[in-house]
Predict the structure of Large ribosomal subunit protein uL10m.
Amino acid sequence: MASLKKVLLPTQASFLIAKRFRGKINIQRPKKPHFERQLLIDLAKPKYGTPKYLLPDTVLCDRGEKRYAREIDNPFERILANECLNWFNTSKMVIFLHVNAISMEDKMPVFAALNKNNMHLRTYGKKIVSMATTGTRYEAVNHLFTSHQNIIFGQPENVAKMFKIMKKAPQLVIMAGIIQDRLMSKNELLEYSQMQNIDVARSQLCAVLDSAGSCLVRQLTQGQQALVGHLEKHVELQSTSSKEPQESTKVESESAKAEPESTS
């Protein structure tokens, strides 16, 4: 046995022995922490002030300091406002969108498709739009903004393409738009997108004007044509009445000639 222990490696006894905790943890009355932990808990304990409903009115009155707070002039905001106003002035089609929850992965294809069709999707906040449109003819659009919203800038001939592209992203809802300095609702924009090309509209206008002119000429010449027709009818009646006595005299003369021959 001794020789066997020399051949095999002896097992080393560990200095730490795992022991199972047999007692139950008292959740309702836990054990008090030691001094250092209790000191850290006391230092990190938050301190709350007196609730506002318990404070007197004299303490709650701020004498209008918050209302008349001085606004800081931000040069970057002025740059964005000038850019926004430039888009409004150079674009004959402006579409306002309401943005629901949408990821950038779903929004990027719509942005690329609009940019490919010469339309630009921009995002501006309420403050930037109010700075850009205050004092201009676009001031009425401030009522459409409550927070950061998207705006599409383009030309009116691309309205139908814009509706086709926006079907791919139902999270972007069309609210209203400006077409050639006229504010339109969504239904009016749909009707405008279904209108035909300007050349077809011009041809239809020319046809309507031509039909109106021809109708006027027809109405003016109707009395003359009716008078000519009545005169021709009167001439025909007179010619037929003059022919009838001549034919009757011819018949009488022929009958008179025939009677003597029969008597002989």
User: Anything to note?
Assistant: The radius of gyration is 50 Å. Residues 75-193 form a domain with the Alpha-Beta Plaits fold (CATH 3.30.70.1730). The mean pLDDT is 80. The first strand starts at residue 93 and ends at 99.
